[in-house]
């Protein structure tokens, strides 16, 4: 991991120019002290890295330095290329960087892995948000966007972006909400009219924060699903959550993050799903079906 980080620091300095130890520490999710040790290690490899003090100071490379690919063995080169390939679906920058490094390393093996995180039916602006969020995190700039919560309410948010997460089949931004004066998770697909402001911030990612089941309010449900929906059952649930009954019906135990979308997902099964537990969700589904039925009678 250290070798990969040293290469990453080197590449960032080549592409970005001067960077502070704090910016590098945030990017690689390590301490500033670790970055200083990495800089010492690069110096020991006779790489002309230097540090300057002052308002516009930081860490940089002497002009006209060129990267020597022999610093990395073939296994390390493959690991870097694979890591970029995994996330190339997020931004075009990652794809371009992957292609450049593939040529630089002279590694032309056919690609065996592809990840596309785009969502059908959504505008390309949401793909651009990933690039904007990355830029805001690395430059410590405040983001402003219109956010739609689970109740459909729209509010303008001004946040200090800290980290991107992919969880529960969705992308989230972990940030400090200046209006709420607290840390919040924002679902990327609910963001609109995003812009990077000229305001900067110095807040760092909390060292004790973890994205786990407690971070998002969740709800446990029990379904009975008809055999005709087998393709969805196996697509959407882990085998450990599924029990096949004698008549071929699926008994499913699942945990979902709370939100209006839960009801939409349940109703998308039509007549082929029955909610057994909890009773409150079963009753709410019944009420919604009654209201819907009145529109057709």
Annotation keywords:
Arc Repressor Mutant, subunit A, five-stranded antiparallel sheet, 3 domains, 9 helices, 11 strands, single chain, 26% strand, Alpha-Beta Plaits, four-stranded antiparallel sheet, alpha+beta, SH3 type barrels, 36% helix, 297 residues
Descriptive notes:
- With 297 residues, the chain is of the alpha+beta class.
- The chain has 3 domains: 2-105, Winged helix-like DNA-binding domain superfamily/Winged helix DNA-binding domain (Arc Repressor Mutant, subunit A, Orthogonal Bundle); 125-200, SH3 type barrels; 218-294, 2-Layer Sandwich (Alpha-Beta Plaits).
- Helices cover 36% and strands 26% of the residues.
- The protein contains 9 helices and 11 strands.
- The protein has a 5-stranded antiparallel sheet, with helices on one face. The protein has a 4-stranded antiparallel sheet with strand order 9-10-8-11, covered by helices on one side.
- Strand 9 (242-244) and strand 10 form a beta hairpin.
- Helix 1 packs across helix 3, helix 2 crosses helix 3 (32-44) and helix 4 (74-86) runs antiparallel to helix 5.
- The chain is elongated and about 75 Å long.
- It starts with a helix and ends with a helix.
- 14% of the residues are buried.
- The mean pLDDT is 79.
Instruction: Give the integer mean of the pLDDT values.
Output: 79
What is the CATH first-level class name of the largest domain? Mainly Alpha
State the end-to-end CA separation.
64 Å
Which CATH architecture of the largest domain is right? Orthogonal Bundle
Q: Helix share of residues?
A: 25-40%
SSE order, one letter for each helix or strand: HHHEEHHHEEEEEEHEEHEH
Number of strands: 11
The low-confidence runs, each spanning 5 or more residues with pLDDT under 50, are none
In DSSP terms (H or I, runs of 4 or more residues), the helix count works out at: 9
Number of domains: 3
Largest sheet: 5 strands, antiparallel
- DSSP strand content: 25-35%
CATH superfamily of the largest domain: Winged helix-like DNA-binding domain superfamily/Winged helix DNA-binding domain
